[in-house]
Amino acid sequence: MTDNNDIKNGKSIAVISYFYLIGVLIAYLANSDKKSAFSYFHIRQSLGLWLSFMALGYPIGYFDNWQITFSFWIAFGILFAYGFSSAISGKMIPIPLLGKIYQKVFKKIQ
Fold it and tell me: What pLDDT is recorded for position 2?
């Protein structure tokens, strides 16, 4: 696991990673010197969420039903809030449903 010093040093980078894809890129580049495992965990979570959001958002946009679109936005909003609050609180908790998959798929990001 990670120690408290790693979490303290990587917390700001982890929080930045949840601000759109540019935040993921900035966080990745900022963490390339520090090599914080805590930051890399949240960079992988955020990258997975943003890519899933875009991949699923495109076909969902074709539905002409506000209930489907609204449900999609609410679901991803909750997942982003969960990841963001996990980063702020200094915990490495995977996002429900997909977090462990994101860690496996993006394991080369370290």
Answer: 64
